[in-house]
Structure formats: structure tokens, C-alpha cells
Amino acid sequence: MGWPWLRRRSWLDKVFALAVGAKGADGALEITGGWLLWAAPRAELNRWIVMLTQHELMEDPDDYVATHLRIMASHLSLHAKHLAALYLMAHGLIKVILAVSLLRNRLWAYPAAIAFLSAFAAYTFYRFAYTRLPILAALAVLNLILVLLISLEYAQRRKKHALPALY
Asked: What is the pTM of this model?
């Protein structure tokens, strides 16, 4: 079977492969981050966050993200830490499986990825409505752009193989 995306020639195919590959790499980082979060003692995690936010808080003592990260780290229970780690690892694993499957041209992965990324974008917009963090809106928009790319690619695959739509 191989990796069909290596032979793609159009710019849209290259953008699709790059975006899906980046999503897969992001998933691998989430798995790693989840594992590190699971394994790190709470005191060590708190020290890391203090170290990572120290410079930002020296420049702006009211920095929203840095302040809230420190508050969350200082109140993080073992249960919450493990739940967050499991979420990261599961979310990352789904991304990696879908990315590899899309790059290997598995037709089932197209509607699965569209559903997963759409749901994640909706949840991210929901969280944005409460926090007003611009990064959340940007992540949601990026996921919707990826949904559009996957939808276009899926339409091409269906047309090529004369398959009906699954969504």
C-alpha cells in the first residue's frame, strides 16, 4: 500500500498532507505530554510551571494565562492530574490514528476525522465563550480549516472510487 500522499502533485494535496501530518505530530506531542503529566509528581509539576511563568510574570504581573496556570497547578489534585493526563493521551492517540489513516488513504478515516475535528472545534468555541482566550478561537478555526481540507480530499476520493457520501 505505502504512503499515497508522497506521490501527490497538486498544491491542495500537499497542503492536506502537511496539515494532517502536523495534526498527527501534535497528537504525538499530546501523548508524550500526557505521559509526562501522569508520571510527574505534583510538586515537580508545580515547580515547572513556576519556572515557565516566572519571566512572563516579571514583565506583566497580571498576565492571565501565567497567573491561572500557577493557580491551577497549586490546586491540582491527583485525580484531576490523572484525568488530564488520560485526556491528553486519548486525544493524542485518536489524532495519531486518524492522521496515519488519512495519509494512508483509508476511506473510513475521512468521515471519522471530520466528525472528531468538528466536535473538537465546537467544544473549543464553547470554551472560548467562557474564557475569551483568543488562542482557543484560533485553534477552533484551524480545526475547521482542516475539516474543510479533509472534506475536499474526501470528495475527491469518493469521486475517484465512485463511492456514496457517508455524511
From this structure: 0.79
